[in-house]
Amino acid sequence: MARPKGKIAKLLAQYVCVRITDMTHVDIGLFHFDPNSTLYCFVLNANEQIYLRYGGRDDASADMYLNDKSLELALERGLELHKQRPEATPRPAAAWPKDIPDVRDNVIAKKQCVHCHQIGHGRTRLLQSQGKIDKLKDVWHYPELKRLGIELDAEKGTVVKKADGAGKDAGIKPRDEIIKVRGITVRSYGDLQQAVHETPLDAETLELTLKRGETEVTASIKLPQWWRVTNIERRSSTHALEPFPEFWAKPLTDAEKRKHNIKPGEFGAAVTKFWVKTNGQNAGMQVGDIVYEVDGVTGAEYTDSPTLWIRLNCKAGDTVEVKVIRADKRLEFSFKLKARPW
Amino acid sequence: MRHLTLLALCAVAVALSLTTIDRTAEAAGVVWLADYNAALKQAADENKPIFLEFR
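Output (structure tokens, whole complex):
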């Protein structure tokens, strides 16, 4: 959006536009969003009443929901809302990047700009240091409705393109527009993703209100156990999880797995690098090794990534047994896990 | 001397192109502020909503 043109430029001209590249003085209690976004926007008024959010991503793409049509829609809605002045919701408690020790000590104290991803990273480090993180529950941020069988039209905000699985079972249909999540009004994909993210961890259902033609209908989606699971290895907040697996690896595609007689859903990842001399490398692992088993485990419902499995199920100081395929040989290595790579 | 002239011409070209970018933005009416508090004040003064971008 460096040089907006056409309709978007005309719409933006009706706004006061501000771009923030340093989060140091931002109230992250008010502007709470997925810190692993490349771009995230808010439409608000001079009293800091947020009308809607624009942004969000999923595992498949960083910018699928960021397109001209969805931006035009968000900007038009923002202007309408500014005229209507909807009732303000209570302002969340203020929070600041300096409240996160990792960000305060390693970024702000060094007079560096605070970036969004450092906030996610710092939050994880803080929870971990306080012993407040349940690694099989607390790590699945910004879940995707796709996991519930709901695919949205990326150009139309919250309009459903396809409904399958749990979403279809709840009665959701293509062309339905999601207008509330758990009673919270949503006006954009960003709003929707934030509301879904804030669903209580113990929730068994997700209540949606939908606009279907001229009528409003409700749907209650029964939530499967692992509905929040996404590929969190792309998140810097996940990189902060201890222990470090002692190697980096790229998951294989299903086709690649089949070549090695690994079933889809089972562990299968090719070691890509060590960067520093890690315990995995010291034990004899090499770049290109295919990791297919860790501590006798060959897969989990929530991940087929052996590196993520190690982060979620082991702790620093544990010794792991890793099995790999190298050429046609099956090899086994044992090494101790450190908290961090360096 | 020839190098200096070339350098001066390049500087003028860069300055002109930056001015053109600024003019394009102004023509579209889109000016990006970098100061959040200034944006709040301008929005109050002009009764406009704010489009806030984090990147």
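The radius of gyration of chain B is 18 Å.
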